Amino acid sequence: MNTIERFNSHIMPSYGRYDLVLQSGNGRTGTDENGKNYVDFGSGIGVNSLGYCDEAWVEAICAQARKLQHTSNYYYTEIQADFAEKLCRMTGYSKMFFGNSGAEANECAIKLARKYSFDKYGKGRHNIITLVNSFHGRTLCTLSATGQDVFHNYFFPFVEGFIYAKANDIEDLRSKIDDSVCAIMFEYIQGEGGVVPLNQDFVDEIFKICKEKDILAIADEVQTGVGRTGTFLAGEQFGVRANITTLAKGLAGGVPIGVCLADEKCCDVLSKGTHGSTFGGNPISCAGGMTVLERLSSGDFLAEVKQKGDYIKEKLLKIPEVEAVDGMGLMLGISLKTKKAPEIVQVALENGLLLLTAKEKLRMLPPLTISYEEIDKGIDILEKLLK
Ligand SMILES: Cc1ncc(COP(=O)(O)O)c(C=O)c1O
Q1: Rounded to two decimals, what is the model's pTM?
Q2: Ligand 1 centroid to 248 CA: how many Å?
Q3: pLDDT tens digits, 278-292
Q4: 248: Cβ below 6 Å to ligand 1?
Q5: 247/105 Cα distance (integer angstroms)
Q6: With contact defined as beta carbons under 8 Å apart, do 116 and 214 qualify?
Q7: What domains does the chain contain, in order, with CATH numbers?
């Protein structure tokens, strides 16, 4: 049996996969079992932020594995302190909690918001407003938080206490606010929902309501965060900072991590015994994460992400089949005039280019380190396919 047959014999069929067995990677190029190369415009859904096997990142991970690979959260480690200190300094947050994925980071945010309200106002103020078309994860609670009916199936009963408001509709949002609401949770750009940005007025309104009513703002920056949009947090470009921000995906460059950042208002709510995770804060993940944070805070790295995003957008908009390009920095969603995105992703793969979809759009989340030469190479392949 070949790899795909063995895989399918023993692994649950919960994903729709492409017939591609990736065996190794170097920089922005992945290589399959047969030695064929692929320019990667997906980076494992925005995870390999520094590309494949970045030298400094590999070095940091290996050095940490040789030193201490794990310890329980009953003890302290220096690498966790280093990472948390740097991340809080870079984002302006007071404290953070370590998990292992975006869903876990969001679970933490939801628990934190409910406990903040419980501690201050008692029972009954537990509802969280999330947005229609959002995506917050695959655990039962984060599926419940996700504002898409398609995810609310099979696994009944779902978790209570989520109210869905229409994105970019201030009136609808206002109509959902009452004394039962403890938080508003949102993505600045809905990623899985089709790369749909919130508009400035709507974001301003969220923050206004939160301030008026002592409701916590929770920004799910699992996909938009860690430099993806050209600033470390996408919220910076809207001129706001939520009380809570969640990060995961690219934060440790390709090893599991998820964090929940909290500001001075709510950073001590999760008191002793109220939350935990065996693997949370794994030293190897923290070592990988330190490399990512150091790279992103060096020189003009983030400004270049923005410039590269603008460069890709400009090139894409010259392709006649391209209807529109949404997104910021290196998080881009492409609407096509006549062709179907999933079909293009399949043909692109056959032609040596890895792409993603988001709803009906093509989606690009290339490694933040992608070069202009690699961008040209990838767009050339796409352009030919779209002719
Ligand atoms: C905005 C957002 N939140 C949460 C998640 C869930 O992250 P994870 O798959 O790491 O649990 C995702 C994943 O795509 C996401 O895009």
Answers
A1: 0.98
A2: 8
A3: 999 999 999 999 999
A4: yes
A5: 7
A6: no
A7: 3-54+300-386 (3.90.1150.10), 68-296 (3.40.640.10)
